[in-house]
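PT: before anyone asks, these are the final sequences, not the draft ones from last week. 482 residues across everything. Please model them as a single complex and drop the result in this thread when it's through.
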Amino acid sequence: MAGTFFTVGLGPGDPDLMTVKAARIIGAVPVIAYFAKRGHSGHARGIVQGRTRADVEEVRLDYPFTTEVSLNDPEYAVTIGAFYEMSAACLATRLDAGKDVALLCEGDPFFYGSSMYLYDRLHGSYTHEVVPGICGMSGCWAAAGTPIVHGDDVLTVLPGTLDEESLTTRLRDCDGAVIMKVGRNLPKIRTALARAGVADRAIYVERGTMPGQRIVPLAEFHDAPAPYFSMILVPGRQRPR
Amino acid sequence: MAGTFFTVGLGPGDPDLMTVKAARIIGAVPVIAYFAKRGHSGHARGIVQGRTRADVEEVRLDYPFTTEVSLNDPEYAVTIGAFYEMSAACLATRLDAGKDVALLCEGDPFFYGSSMYLYDRLHGSYTHEVVPGICGMSGCWAAAGTPIVHGDDVLTVLPGTLDEESLTTRLRDCDGAVIMKVGRNLPKIRTALARAGVADRAIYVERGTMPGQRIVPLAEFHDAPAPYFSMILVPGRQRPR
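LR: through. Structure below.
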């Protein structure tokens, strides 16, 4: 009998912000799998350190790119597609051998998570379960002590990779906003926030809920480029209660 | 010495989707507090059933309204403001007596949660901690097996209380969307989804991750009105990978 395929959200970084369910699955499965960038230990892997079975088999899935390739580049689609196919085949081998496999995902698996591409390829063939996790952004606004939306507020989640014009228009049009994928997009994001008139509300969060956490008003952040694990929060809630 | 004020997110409903940290705090504090509607047992309270200290003191905070009053009605603001003042005072009494207090919150406390109004009133005066929780929407898209956004997708979270025109415009303009507070707003939401051309992607989720969970394409849902614990998901991800 084939094993069960678990897609497990691990939350924003603090291992204590893993769910009870995730912790139980991570401690029980004979195989864990995780994505990592070449030369890095893997963020999701780090979260479960010391929480797996002593004899656990680890399947490390190295992204084929070490630097960012544009999502719109046709080569990106081909290469990354082949990588997900190969990764799914790797996990299928273990599942076919009757072993349960947990695919580790930082944050929430179905919210900008690469794990969805393996879920796509495997869920039709195996017993499976998706365990949601706390999104990185929830960890960040809790750490910042900043409620993000209330009442009739609209929340917009924006990838910092969008062009300046799109960012500006969307920021003008929302109550609360979260900008992900900040990194080298920060100068453009900063301009868009100013043009939309919300720069004074913007909060910069780096490594939210993790060691080295840093939270400052964006106006007081002057480093460049921002690291990958950074995010900008624009709290809504302009109508107090 | 005064107690610590914990604002604790409990996640979407399944008690196993509480974080390890939340479970530990809930099992340790001498006082829990929670909001509830008159005549109902309290959703947040239900999630922690059997997980608190045997001698825990429960502070139930009954909302002053049993039926919905418009958020824009001036009477609403006055009455609800007084209610939050009184609730904060109730918790302050316990904190001043040196007792740690956990305010229970379904979902994530800073994402449309009433707990933020007590956080506003108490966090300046007491040692405090906010524990994020899995948002209801994460629980719903995991339960539905539907990744919501990837890559450069924009996610928009919309309260179903918005007018039809606003809903339509915003739905036209996003990749993925979540519509909260469905209830009696369903007919209007349905029209907006159709006008925006996304009705065929819409998924109706009722009591996500809880007993009685129901997940169907919106086109196949014909009951009215929808219950309070319902949500509509419009998956983004129109560019496959």
